[in-house]
Design brief:
The protein is mainly beta. The chain is 4% helix and 54% strand. The longest helix is centred in the first third of the chain and has 15 residues, at 3-17. The termini are far apart.
Length: 778
């Protein structure tokens, strides 16, 4: 069945059921509200801020999924890694070797298979309107959220930081100004202890304050036999202070500070294959350390898997001023100012053995400042949003690597850094023509983006440098006309090689360059209300992802050849319906996206990194459906699914080889679906609740080459929770007790894989786990 037939099927189903709403598991609660028990009828509309103003989800002309606090609690949300099981066409991939750099994919559009700080991400993450620009470190603790909004498709004419693939809006719960809070404690297998406390304080002198704390002290399932420590263990402490000042009815200032500080160890990597080029003399040493199936708890020993730490901090100040009624309608002004930092420290073992084959250090330091200004106008027939955005970030990376040293210390070295200054202006106007009886919304938008990026790189390939330091593959640094390295000291270049008893790599001069890209991007969308709770929409949008500099290049020529911007033309139509009794909701979207100069990540095994080249064109076509059914009192069923056909339609390598038919779009499963349910029934003075969720996705390629060793098989996981809730203990205080299970079918699957040429490794997901939890609300 092709995509058009699927569209016909879903539209037929939609029409048969009349009237809309997209709530999936979760009708979003307003900020600061506590989760409410599900009911077979939901009287309140779902309100979102996906378009930078509060409006019904039904009226938003894009595909949006909402995850509310009740669902987050059932799923044990600690960070954004937990989302993929509840939103169709969303996937959270793991960076090989760590758990704090999630690779977010929406509708098959994913980052390259590593998380270089030099690159823009296709999917934006926003915390209360503040862009979280890089994947590295984005698995910070979410502390307490009012809702999560997942926007699929390009977002630019209403967002400061341009995102070509979609956006994840994390909306925190505002201080209430009334004394109260929650405390949660969970204990699971392998000594996984999680805790969370949130406290609202009474209003004092127009100030409302909320303080939150979260902790995660977790062991790992797999034991590293080499150092007698758990793979993937983590000790995390997170906190957030939220202060809201409301001196008058038309002005507010909200300041927040958040911090997440984690100490841990790398996740487990196990060899699943060795190549014919693997040294014959070393084969006996690893004969028992190759696993084609999931290893046992104590089977893997990696002596260099020592550290996986990260720390993030964030300050934000949001000012809102309501000017009231003016000649331009009701006008509100908003300012969002932010500074965020991230540091990560990793010592990783990429061979998963006691033999010193592949190890490296990766230390990242990142700092970003952003400022956004918005004018939001609301009139009888015209609404508008106008914004200006400034973004300035800076990063540095220290990344020595040891390949087949067998205890030696002759490392390759990569030291790199850079930054981006971005300026943008955007606007969108929505017209509600009177001749259509206010059933029709016509919106046009325009965005201008200007990015100026700079990068520096010093790379020294130890072995090649020792053989011939003037060779092109000896590294990236300043050279004379004949290729000889230029040293700061004027001494021979041989002394720059690590272990050569000279000055060392600091004697070499890194390459530097800067480039600038800019683009105008228009958009038009239509929304028509067939009935008050049944809307259909259409959207034509363009997108832009800035070009960049390969700061992980292995030659001067590669560093000095920037990759071009990626440009998008996207078409989308959809329908959002809810039945009159609100027992059934169903949303359908069909999209077709054409990418020019698609930024494809080419993995370089010897450097354990990815460089970007431009493919001529790629096309993504798909359909997605989601909804909820409440057949009788107390029971809610949720469902969702997506189909995706993603392929290159023009891809010629720089060598001239045409790979259009053979290269793949990585991390883009053709099929995915989810189904879940919640049953709530009164029991005495409390409520019994049972919930379960099954999520499945088909096979997907791990790299752009059809490499079966890096591919991921189809898999599905089942999570569930059973408990007693709303146990009244007096004075407005309630207790909850529950038992939960993750991956209850004990599915064996790997969530990341990498082929290093001479060997391939897999990062296996955790097996079945169970635990208990308790929560008090007061």
């Amino acid at each position: 069945m092709n995509a058009i037939n699927y569209l016909k099927l879903f539209l037929f189903a939609s029409t048969a059921m009349t009237q809309t709403a997209q709530a999936q598991t979760a009708a979003g609660n307003a900020p600061g509200a506590t989760p409410q028990a599900e009911s077979p009828t939901v009287e309140a509309d779902i309100v979102v801020t996906a378009q930078r103003r509060e409006e019904r989800l039904l009226d938003v002309p894009i595909a949006v999924s909402v995850i509310n606090p009740a669902l987050m609690e059932r799923a044990g949300f600690q960070n954004i890694n937990n989302m993929q099981a509840f939103v169709p066409n969303l996937q959270i991939n793991q960076t090989v070797g760590n758990s704090f750099s999630p690779l977010i994919t929406i509708r098959g559009l994913s980052p390259s298979s590593d998380t270089s700080l030099a690159r823009d991400q296709p999917v934006g993450i926003y915390l209360d309107g503040v862009p979280i620009a890089k994947s590295t470190g984005s698995a910070f603790d979410t502390v307490e959220l009012a809702r999560v909004e997942v926007l699929r498709g390009p977002q630019g004419t209403l967002y400061g930081k341009n995102t070509i693939g979609g956006a994840v809006n994390l909306v925190s719960a505002e201080p209430t100004g009334e004394f109260g809070g929650t405390a949660w404690l969970s204990y699971g297998q392998w000594d996984r202890v999680q805790s969370r406390v949130s406290l609202n304080l009474p209003t004092v002198a127009n100030f409302k304050v909320k303080l939150s704390y979260s902790g995660n002290n977790s062991g790992g399932y797999w034991r590293n036999a080499a150092i007698n420590r758990d793979f993937g263990s983590q000790s995390l402490i997170a906190g957030r202070a939220d202060v809201l000042w409301e001196p008058s009815s038309n002005f507010s200032a909200r300041y927040t500070y958040d911090i997440s500080d984690a100490k841990g160890r790398p996740t487990m990597l196990a060899i699943n294959s060795i190549a014919s080029t693997f040294p014959a003399s070393l084969r006996p040493l690893i004969a028992g350390e190759v696993f084609t199936d999931r290893p046992g708890r104590d089977d893997v020993a990696a002596q260099s898997a020592l550290q996986s730490d990260f720390r993030t901090t964030g300050h934000s100040l949001t000012l809102n001023l309501d000017l009231g009624s003016t000649g331009l309608g009701d006008v509100a002004l908003r300012s969002i100012t932010s500074r965020r930092t991230m540091q990560s420290r990793s010592q990783s073992d990429f061979d998963g053995t006691t033999v010193d084959l592949v190890r490296f250090i990766l230390n990242n330091d990142y700092d970003v400042f952003s400022q956004e200004l918005q004018i939001i106008g609301t009139g009888e027939s015209v609404n508008y949003t106008i914004g200006a955005f400034y973004f300035n970030d800076d990063y540095s990376v220290f990344n020595p690597r040891w390949n087949f040293q067998l205890g030696g210390n002759s490392s390759d070295l990569s030291e790199r850094g850079g930054g981006n200054k971005s300026l943008a202006g955007y606007g969108q106007v929505t017209w509600k023509p009177g001749f259509a009886d206010r059933r029709l919304d016509v919106s046009v938008g325009l965005r201008y983006t200007s990015d100026r990026k700079r990068a520096r790189e010093l790379f020294l390939g130890n072995t090649n440098f020792r053989v011939n330091s003037a060779a092109a593959n000896s590294g990236v640094f300043e050279r004379t006309a004949n290729g000889t390295p230029v040293t700061r000291s004027g001494q021979p270049a041989a002394g720059a090689r690590p272990g050569a008893n000279g000055i060392g790599p600091s004697d070499l001069i890194p390459l530097e360059r800067s480039d600038e890209w800019s683009k105008f991007n228009p958009e038009i969308n239509l929304v028509y209300r067939l009935q008050p709770d049944w809307t259909v929409y259409g959207r034509i949008a363009t997108g832009f992802k800035s070009g960049g500099i390969n700061d992980t290049a292995s030659t001067n020529a590669a560093f000095n050849k920037p990759y071009d911007p990626e440009k998008l033309l996207s078409y989308e139509v959809g329908s959002k319906l809810t039945t009159a009794d609100r027992r059934l909701s169903l949303n359908v979207a069909l999209y077709h996206s054409i990418y020019k100069d698609f930024q494809a990540g080419v993995f370089v095994p010897e450097l354990v990194t990815t460089n970007i080249i431009n493919a001529g064109e790629a096309k993504f076509t798909g359909i997605e459906v989601e909804g909820s059914l409440r057949p009788f009192e107390g029971l809610t069923l949720n469902f969702g699914g997506g189909y995706l056909d993603a392929r290159y339609t023009d891809f010629v390598l720089p060598s001239g080889e045409n790979v259009t038919a053979t290269y793949k779009i990585p991390l883009a499963p053709k099929w995915n679906y989810l189904i879940g349910g919640v049953w709530r029934v009164p029991v005495g003075g409390a409520t019994f609740e049972a919930s379960a969720n099954w999520s499945w996705r088909s096979m997907q390629w791990g790299l752009i080459t059809p490499d079966t060793l890096a591919a991921r098989t189809a898999y599905g996981t089942l999570d569930a929770r059973v408990g007693l809730f709303d146990i009244a203990v007096g004075k407005g205080t309630t207790l909850e007790f529950a038992v939960w299970g993750r991956n209850l079918t004990d599915t064996k699957f790997w969530n990341s894989a990498i082929n290093l040429g001479v060997l391939a490794v897999r990062q296996w997901a955790d097996p079945r786990s169970v635990g208990v939890e308790s929560r008090i609300r007061f």
